Amino acid sequence: MVKAVVFDVGETLIDETRIWSRWADRLGVSGFVLMGALGGMAALDRPHVEAFELVRPGFDLRAEEAAWERDDPGGLRNHFDADDLYPDVRAALAELRAAGYQVIIAGNQPRRAYEALVAMDLPADSIHTSEGWGVEKPQPEFFAKVAAVAGREPAEILYVGDRLDNDVLPAARAGMRTALLRRGPWGYLHAARPEAAGADVIADDLHALLAAARRIT
């Protein structure tokens, strides 16, 4: 029986469209060009930074992020705020908590993302980031941390994310139940793959999770 529902962040709770658009401006290409390159990397199972390298040969992510922070110290840059939440997030998380489920947010995010998520006052019991934990998905240690902060057996946890490689498959290997969310480029692509059949749930929105959690035994 599921007792806790744990959420990834990017393209699960946060719509990253504005982030990618700002990156396109920073790189000096159109949004269409960068989105196309990102889609190609998603289809090829290659990291998104290779899309940046494709449109700007010699690209150095850390150097560019540091330069961007110097240029625009008060801006959002490659981060997000409450305006980037998907419309179903608050209501869906509140539904789950009202039904008695523990709600946790835990994803591959920098420390600044933790502060942004806390400031949103979401209906969640706790919020965690990979930088705060010092371990990232898909490493098994990340999912061990998820179980530890939930205080649950892995089989009592439903992990929700938009990717097979980072979310569904490693969470399942850790003994958790899984939900694959069909949104964002990775979500749509991964939901069409044969491996998606291994997920306990394939959902089009977060409102589907309450009924799904109740069905899983």
Automatic annotation (TrEMBL):
InterPro entries: HAD-like_sf, HAD-SF_hydro_IA, HAD_sf, S-2-haloacid_dehalogenase. Keywords: Hydrolase. The keyword Hydrolase applies. It comes from the Bacteria. It holds the Pfam family Hydrolase. One of its GO terms (molecular function) is hydrolase activity. The keyword Aminoacyl-tRNA synthetase does not apply. Gene3D superfamilies: HAD superfamily/HAD-like (3.40.50.1000). NCBIfam families: HAD-SF-IA-v1. This is HAD family hydrolase. It comes from Nonomuraea turkmeniaca.
